[in-house]
Amino acid sequence: MKSKKSKKRKASSPSSSSSSSSSSSSSDTDASGKYKPKGLSKTLHKAIKPSVKAAKRKHIKKEPESAFAAMQKSMANIEKRLKIIDKKLSALVDEGEEEEGTKNAAQDGGEGDQSETGEKDDPDGIRYKPRKVKYRKKNSSQTNMDRIKRLRSTPPSPASFPTLTKLAKNAIASTTANSYCPKLKAFEKFCEKFNYEACPASIEALRHFVEALFLQGKTLTYVESSLAAIHHWHRSVGLDAPTKDSLVLAAKKGWKRLNAKPKKVRKPITPSILRKLIKVFLHKKETNLIYWRTVWRIIMEFYGGLRWADISELRTNHITFENNYMTLQLPKMKNDQFREGTSVHFYKAIDERYCPVTVTRHYLDLLRKIGKFPIYLQPRLQHTSSSQKGHVLAEPHQFLSYRQALKDSRHLLTSIGLDSKNYGEHSGKKGGITSAALNNASRTELTAVGKWKSDKMIETYVSRTPEFHQKVQQKLDISKQKSRKKFKNSFKNY
Fold first, then answer.
1. Residue 225: its pLDDT value, please?
2. Full-model pTM
3. Which of 65-90 are b and which e, b meaning 16 or more Cβ less than 10 Å from the residue's Cβ?
């Protein structure tokens, strides 16, 4: 028995030793089949782990840019190492295929004729069945190749797309992004306190956070803004946010129902109020620039269907005059998310006293007289007794603030005997839309004047003024029926 085993070992030793020596020399695998990097691959392997740890440290320290740079470095090293491994594994696979081909050729040459049943013919005429070959384990090189293919088929992390990530962060306006920052910091602190992962956030973490906000007495507006900030954060890095959770949405509705308060609706600037403002403050011997600035703004909001934000930063070069109309070129609007620009036309009125074009021309002439021509159509003004007209430019490169504008308009409304608390900066636009609706303007026309994408906002801006109700009641008045017979005959078929 010992002699037979020794013979077999001797017979098989040359081929096996040669193959093993060739495979060990050409690959970086050990006897067990595990991959051991050498050379450049080894250096890259050592460089990956520290860069990942550095990225983790930077993330904990709230340094996203540094963490992102470290992750990019590690990703580059991983890509390089994968290329090296791929080359070596492909070489191993080619060697294995060549060896298998030679073995098959040798077997085909050494074997005799086979019958249909697969039995071999012995030279002595004895038939015998071939020995069943057991399935061998997969080659380690092949398993490594499969693993690499699997890894490459998985979707890459958001850090692999820095350009797309940067563009996604700019999907919202800069002002909106700035308002999101404190909400996101509060959410990150909350997650750190209760051992939650902030991004991607779990449904449990979000529910816990929203519940904490309601218990702290935060308003629904604050909660909705926080959820919008979390949603945008996840979307900007290519992840799905759990902000549309059914329990959170139902809780918001319930909070709104339990804490319902009567909505304070601002009154519109009616045509009679606007006429009174123009008579009292514009057609006077004494010229007050603040009065002109305020009334001009209300006229623009009334005739153009504009908000405060639409005209707050308008410059003097944004206005052009034609024969019978003028054009305001608005560089930005609330509805203009992509800053394409909007043109608003104002046509001359029959009465010059109430004409928006004439009032604008007079207003610009007054601005030229204060000294240096301002950049903005609503500049900051400073009262001075030494000036001939009483006002000079405070700072030429600054425009009027919202708080000061609201203060000026309420001061004017109070001086003509109105309760100014019932009016706001949107009152001019509401008054214009309501006046157009009372004059039988269609929904399409009202939508165009209001600069809306749909006609759903008409109900919000068309105020139910006494004039509106009066007009509706006139249509319902049955005393205007010409004949009772006609009224009776209409019910015959019923």
1. 92
2. 0.57
3. eebbbbbebbbebbebbeebbeebbe
